[in-house]
Amino acid sequence: VSGVSGYLDAAAGVPLHPVAAQALAAALADGWADPAKLYGAGRRARLLLDGAREAIAEVLGARPDEVTFCASGTQAAHLAVLGGLAGRRRAGTRFVHSAVEHSCVLHAAERHVAAGGTAVGVPVDRDGRVGAAAFAAAADGAALASLMTANHEVGTLQPVAEVADACRARGVPLHTDAAQSAGRLPIPPGWSLLSASAHKWGGPPGVGILAIRTGTRWQNPLPTDERERGRVPGFENVPAAVAAAAALQAVAAESAGENARLSTLTARIRTRVAAAVPDVEVVGHPEDRLPHLVTFSCLYVDGEALLHELDRRGFAVSSGSSCTSSTLTPSHVLEAMGVLSHGNVRVSLHRDTREDDVDRFLAVLPPIVRDLRTRAGVNGL
Amino acid sequence: VIILDQRGRRCPLPVIELARHIGDVPVGASIAVAADDPAARLDIPAWCRMRGHGYEGESAAGDGVPVYRVTRLR
User: Fold this and answer.
1) What is the DSSP letter of A227?
2) Phi, psi for B4 (deg, rounded to 5)
3) Nearest CA in chain B to A327
4) Structure confidence at residue A1 (pLDDT)
5) What is the pTM of this model?
6) In angstroms, what separates the C-alpha of B50 from chain A's closest C-alpha?
7) What percent of chain A has pLDDT over 90?
8) Mean pLDDT for all residues in chain A
9) Contacts A373 to B, Cβ<8 Å
10) Which residues on chain A are in Cβ contact (under 8 Å) with B35?
11) C-alpha distances in angstroms, A296 versus A273, A283, A346?
């Protein structure tokens, strides 16, 4: 695949898994018809769609009728949060979420507040993690709570199972955004609403998963039709759903070996970057973390210049530094953690990442940082 | 108190200027940075933590720009 060798931005999206490419081609040929129609071609599309739903449900620990396909992980999170709040209107309007949720959850919270509701962001510690007890206390009496399985910028795992227990005891439904961990790690039990995104696990872009646990109060915030149990309107993208399911089954089957391989490589990055680059802060929880993602900040370095130099050498990484964002504000995740925001680099690996890619990255990074610091006249400060 | 005027300067420049001038005050004394870049609110306390200096908090200058105060501890 072109450009994959230096592509170290898996958290943004990974290349299509080979089995997904095969499944996509086959389903485009065979599953193009309207799955709502009763003629033969429609029934074939329906069978493919139902099969994809069953496969995804099994990996995510859901029932098939709880799983809905939509256009993206972002749309899934919007529907989970706004629909979960709409379904709980009689219980109040308070929405509780961690301060480090993905912007899609925060945008849904903003919409909720604009409509007269309230939203509370629960603070995180220096590692980016909420305290389960503090989160549960904040969620007491809330209409809905939202806690991601793992953070997309720093890789820290959140105590979702513990929080889900506490929420259940309080009668508060919990949404979990599993976009970064689905297919890599088991989904923690106890969620009422779950959202995920297929292109993060090797499925095609444009497939989001919304799962609504049976018995959860949920009311669609958007117009509906008869499709996807009245949860997502419009003609289903059957081929993409089939490819997403094939990829999820494949990555889940590979996950034990891949997690071991990638966590060895991210541990190498953590150790070597800290040793070879002066004044670097590796951020995120050191142990309770995603196996494939590592984040660090380089003191006195302009994050945009760093990304540009890495790109010139063929490496694609991401940054939470303000100078790399369109809004010119630092990442809300780094802000909530209280860690250095400039010179920030997120490296995230995937199944096509080779040990050699990581070693080449580790070879080019220290001189790039040194040169940028020399240019800025900050060596020895 | 010395106030380093970093209005209009983008990160990481306000922190770099602070690092250049922390030695201008004796140990135990304070220095301040006026910076309108929102990243300074994050980066100045983080720099203090990494360099072992004391972050004392922020106030607002007459024009509303945040002023971050740091005590040299070493």
Assistant:
1) G
2) -80, 120
3) B38
4) 46
5) 0.96
6) 8
7) 95
8) 96
9) none
10) none
11) 8, 5, 7
